[in-house]
Write a structure and sequence with these properties.
The chain has 13 helices and 15 strands. By secondary structure, the protein is α+β, with helices and mostly antiparallel strands. A hairpin with a 2-residue loop joins strand 2 and strand 3.
Length: 365
């Protein structure tokens, strides 16, 4: 379908149409000095006139010279917290006179409309779809939430110094995986449709045909993000180069810097490590089996027979990076990295995986 144009003042209509259809609209908003995702009701809750300045180990908000609503890159949150929640009840068990009675949780999953999904995040959702939906076992929690979500993507018109999506072929232009995609201009949004659900919603909005000038301005805005990306990662033969250099001294150097804090895996939009706990009440008559996010950086995560398999930080960092960039290909047929740069920004000591990969491959040392 050809693109349409939505005046900026009419973006509120989009939010209201989504809520009319039973969606809780999740979008970017400012919280604790960062741009985070949360439920929003009006466009006044969007980070109007704010941007984020990111470097390795550093994130700051900064005022823009204009009133852009989506003039930022990505914050510490990713959409996986809504599709693959940090805590989920898998089963409950109750002690009865006849023994234990077990039940699967009976809850209607929420209907989310994601507003502001970037191209790298669309790629991350596709990767998690492979993990949770396309293998021999389907994750029912993820499936129920994924099937009920509506995605409004936003094309990037600027990049952070930590972005390298062009190296991973995941952005900055949104290509697929959305219902609607917006490109923000000073007066409004160029709107592209990517699904039947998106087409149906678009028909209810006060859109018009864009002018030739607006089409040109949107293309220029999208190209601006491409030209701003300076960080690169050569992925040629990356699987073989990493897996054949497991004893490279750089692993130890990274391990000496790494705090094993798990920040990189918590902010990563594709990491899916989890643990299952049995949580009983004080009388031990009711037990809840819950799944919680975990991390391969935690010492206990790789414990077998009471002994950690990876008992030093360097080995855990190596496990994370080689899985993300190498053995992920064996499991799921793609890289586990989308080039969003979150792990670089939110690492307290500023470890940059693109630098580590280049060093291990002999491009830097």
């Amino acid at each position: 379908m050809p693109p349409w144009f939505l005046e900026k003042a009419c973006l509120q209509d989009l939010l209201e149409r989504l809520r009319d259809r039973g969606y809780a609209v999740i979008g970017p908003t400012i919280s604790q000095e960062a741009i985070c995702y949360d439920e929003i009701h009006t466009i006044d809750e969007l980070p109007r006139g704010w941007t984020d300045v990111q470097q390795a180990g550093r994130y700051r908000l900064q005022r823009r010279a204009d009133e852009s609503l989506f003039g930022y890159v990505v914050g510490p949150h990713s959409w996986k917290r809504y599709l693959f929640p940090p805590q989920a009840t898998l089963m409950t068990a109750d002690r009865t006179d006849g023994g234990w009675s077990m039940q699967a949780p009976v809850e209607v999953p929420p209907r989310y409309a994601f507003l502001g999904v970037r191209a790298c995040e669309l790629a991350a959702i596709r990767i998690q779809d492979k993990v949770f939906l396309e293998g021999p076992y389907v994750d029912l929690v993820y499936q129920a939430r994924r099937e009920r979500c509506f995605v409004v993507a936003v094309n990037c018109t600027q990049a952070a110094s930590t972005c390298f999506c062009t190296s991973m072929n995941t952005g900055p232009r949104c290509q697929a995986g959305f219902d609607l995609a917006l490109t923000e201009l000073p007066t409004g949004f160029l709107v592209e449709c990517g699904s039947d659900a998106g087409s149906e919603l678009l028909a209810s909005l006060p859109v018009r045909e864009p002018s030739a000038e607006e089409l040109t301005a949107a293309e220029s805005a999208r190209e601006q993000a491409v030209h701003q990306i300076q960080r690169l990662m050569d992925t040629t033969n990356i699987r073989e180069d990493l897996l054949t250099n497991l004893n490279h001294p750089r692993w130890q150097e990274a391990g000496e810097r790494c705090l094993s804090c798990t920040n990189c895996t918590m902010v990563c939009p594709t990491c899916f490590c989890s643990s299952v706990n049995e949580v009983a009440d004080l009388g031990a008559d009711h037990v809840r089996r819950e799944r919680v996010w975990d991390s391969c950086f935690n010492l206990d995560f790789s414990t077998m027979n009471g002994t950690p398999v990876r008992n030093n930080v360097a080995s855990r960092y190596r496990q994370w990076l080689t899985h993300k960039l190498a053995s992920w290909h064996d499991q799921f047929g793609s890289s586990g990295c989308v080039g969003c740069g979150r792990c670089i920004t939110w690492c307290p000591v500023g470890i940059d995986l693109t630098e580590e990969v280049a060093a291990i491959r002999g491009d830097v040392r």
